[in-house]
Design a protein that fits this description.
The protein is an alpha/beta fold and about 500 residues long. It is built from 17 helices and 18 strands. Helix 14 (about 385-405) packs parallel to helix 16 (about 440-460).
Length: about 500
């Protein structure tokens, strides 16, 4: 079995400070990375910043600094956000790095040598904000302004000499590739959208610009800079030290298992990227997943609309793990979702403080008082005990399949159901009435601890800090966490001391 797994976030465009959309992509990617690690995979998790293009150059000019200094400053905020979000990324790539420039140079030279690129003249609509070209039918006029129907960003007419990639040539090979790899694009609605776009007819793509200078120069013509998306997408290769195809990382991790992206950049990843790679005779990634947006009210967040939700403010007010849990549980993965203060507080109070935190505290406090804080040594499972414990073994493969199919919602639903069952078990078994029956008392408490252990392992990819705090009370360290262990009912060592678990999540007082 290939035991390697490569996952990436989009690399973020640092023209402004990070917002909740960036945090969402990163947290979801971290969920998958952590899960695959505890499944026993050697995971390579990549994030970073895309630092070239006209948008960056204009933002730097507006601030009165050179583009490199501007990028150094903004990129630092994204790197800091990775730490704040407790991401487990292996690498943080910047497209201004020399390793990246070498990769882009090489890819360009291959495409040019294979006659996939030619020099001509571009005239058409271009959005600096999106760094995207749009056809006439993708443009609308509102208040005498030309805007992209897709993003609402202003577009401008440009005419300039440009290198073109022969995208039209790859229309049929792409459709064949999608047919042979039906899970390459998920969710299904996004796949249908991409196939419809490709079937409508692909035109050759302008892949260089001459009207600005901030970017990687075309190797054969220094008057041109390489189109920011051909540059940016190559980061997924450059992080693996491409073009050195004998590099251990490249050999281990390419092709990538999952590019996790926002739906607004689906076309770049699901059409242009595989076309570039196929043209260069490089295997495309295994999957591109286009998730929805995190909305502010009913609108997409954007700097121009002034409706940016700052993840740092939410974390400072409510904590990181509650934000991670909320985004993973409450947003239907693949669809748009929004953050509501009321829903977030309900989530903290109900799921985290009551169902999880209170269960951990009640059970460990009871053991401290009645068993001198030690794991029971005398127990014997009856039918009810085995039934509640066996649920994890019976659903083990389903849980793996949920994650491999990016079905986050069913994964979280399973955890919620088990939290409800664990609380019900402890209440229904009434250990406080079994103090005269040492074996039954020990069994109820052992089963309750086992349920907490299993649930904490499942919660680890979602709320790593809190679940680890709970697991450490059973002397389970991060490196020892294994998803396989949820199938075993007797991992906890008899007579071992455990600590009482303090308040994990503070309940939020709500005014009626």
């Amino acid at each position: 079995m290939n035991n390697n797994y490569y996952i990436s976030t989009p690399i973020y465009y640092p023209s402004a400070k990070p917002h909740m959309g960036h945090a969402y992509s990163s947290i979801i990617a971290d969920f998958f990375a952590r899960f695959k690690r505890i499944q026993g995979y050697d995971v390579f998790f990549l994030t970073g910043t895309d630092e070239h293009g006209q948008k960056i150059q204009r933002a730097a000019e507006k601030k009165g600094v050179d583009p490199r200094s501007f990028c150094d400053e903004i990129s630092k905020t994204f790197r800091n956000l990775s730490k704040l979000l407790n991401l487990s990324n292996n690498d943080f790539i910047r497209t201004t790095e020399e390793r990246h420039r070498k990769s882009v140079d090489n890819l360009w030279k291959i495409l040019e040598a294979k006659n996939e690129i030619y020099l001509s003249k571009y005239s058409g609509w271009y959005s600096v904000s999106d760094e995207a070209f749009y056809s006439e039918d993708e443009i609308e006029t509102i208040d005498n302004k030309k805007l992209s129907k897709n993003s609402g960003s202003p577009v401008e007419w440009i005419e300039e000499e440009s290198f073109f990639f022969k995208l039209s040539k790859w229309q049929e090979p792409l459709l064949k590739f999608y047919a042979e790899n039906p899970k390459f694009i998920l969710p299904e609605s996004r796949k249908n959208e991409v196939i419809s776009f490709v079937k409508s007819g692909l035109k050759d793509l302008s892949v260089s610009r001459k009207s600005f200078t901030w970017g990687i120069k075309v190797p054969s013509n220094n008057d041109h800079v390489i189109y920011v998306w051909l540059d940016a997408l190559t980061n997924y290769l450059s992080a693996l030290n491409y073009p050195d195809t004998n590099d251990p990382n490249y050999k281990k991790y390419w092709p990538a298992d999952l590019h996790l992206i926002g739906k607004d950049i689906l076309r770049f990843h699901a059409v242009y990227w595989p076309a570039f790679l196929l043209a260069a005779n490089i295997q495309p990634p295994k999957r591109v997943y286009g998730h929805g947006w995190i909305l502010s009210g009913e609108e997409k967040m954007s700097k121009s609309k002034g409706n940016i939700l700052d993840p740092i403010e939410i974390i400072n007010s409510y904590g990181l793990d509650p934000l991670r849990y909320y985004l993973i549980k409450e947003v239907s993965f693949g669809n748009d979702g929004n953050i509501s203060k009321d829903k977030l507080e309900n989530c903290i109070n109900s799921d985290l403080a009551n169902n999880y935190g209170n269960l951990c505290q009640r059970v460990t406090a009871f053991i401290e008082k009645n068993l001198n804080s030690s794991i029971p040594k005398d127990y014997e499972f009856n039918k009810d005990d085995n039934n509640i414990l066996d649920v994890y073994k019976k659903n083990y493969k389903s849980l793996i399949n949920y994650v491999d199919g990016q079905d986050i919602n069913n994964y979280v639903n399973f955890i919620q159901e088990q939290l409800f069952s664990a609380n019900k078990y402890f209440n229904d078994q009434e250990p406080w009435k079994k103090k005269g029956d040492i074996k039954r008392l020990g069994t109820i408490l052992y089963v309750s601890l086992e349920l907490i252990r299993k649930i904490s392992i499942l919660l680890y990819p979602i709320i790593p800090s809190t679940s680890l705090k709970v697991l450490k009370t059973f002397n389970i360290n991060e490196k020892d966490i294994s998803i396989k262990d949820i199938q075993n009912h007797e991992i906890l060592k008899k007579n071992t001391n455990i600590n009482k678990i303090s308040v994990l999540f503070k309940k939020i007082e709500k005014n009626d």
